Amino acid sequence: MTSIKMVAVDVDGTFVRHNHTFDEDRFRRILTRMHEVGAEFVIASGNQYWQLRDYFPGYDEELSFVAENGAYVKDHADVAFVEAMERDVVLKALEWIEAHPDIENVMSCLSCAYVERGRMREDFFEFMRTYYHRMEWVDSLRDVSDPVLKFALSVPHDQTMAYYDEIRATMTAGLVPTSSGHGAIDLIVPGCHKASGLQRLAERWDISPEEVAVFGDGGNDVEMLKWAGSGYAMANACDEAKAAANHFCPSNEEQGVLTTLEELFEL
Fold first, then answer.
1. Could you read off the pLDDT of 84-102 as tens digits, one per residue?
2. How would you classify residue 38: left for phi > 0, otherwise alpha for psi between -120 and 50, otherwise beta?
3. Same domain, yes or no, for 207 and 230?
4. Which of 44, 80, 100, 170 is disulfide-compatible with 66, CB 3.0–4.6 A?
5. Tens digit of pLDDT for each residue in 119-167?
6. Active site residues
7. Rounded Cα gap, residues 68 and 16, in angstroms
8. Nearest to residue 79, comparing CAs of 197, 164, 173, 196?
């Protein structure tokens, strides 16, 4: 029997297929087996908690969540940790975003996510509803008092790395960029990433990194792939994620996470 006591999975490009589905019957069997051996299952994503929770209706409190790239950590029913940005950092980020009119932006906060009316397109708002199940229009992001956890930027695809490098060079304090590629860049609190969130849960549960298996496909999975004793990169993972992993598994379209967990937990 495996010595794995915690499993953490990224969602998009890792756990779910392109249509945001997964084999729920297989997952239920795996989760039941994990409960029997005292292993924890964690969703670790850059996405909003409210969206992640909706993937698992009816039994989300059996799971734990590292959401918003580590800024929001939920231990079953309990919120274990929240890391909000300082006000001056938020204003600096908004100033930079406003100076780049080709960038679209969602400001993700503790209770909701917000999009600025007049600056963002209606179709952008509707598209982002896929990832932000609690989201509202506001006249100005500067007037939002909800604690800010993350900025989610949408940039021209062919300029993703150029903008990533510019952000790293110009925003030297208070936030750092992370990217899953394809025009998506998140601005997060320094030192606050998926691995830091998983570490917080591991400490609460007295689990060592060597007893953890994680699965990921993108650049924002690198820290946790390196941190865990068993880091699995998906077959469809980016080169950076593959370089950080020490194991590989089939793609998300092949339900590679479920296949690997069935092997690890002898199902």
1. 999 999 999 999 999 999 9
2. left
3. yes
4. 44
5. 888 999 999 998 899 999 999 999 999 999 999 999 998 888 899 999 8
6. 10
7. 18
8. 197
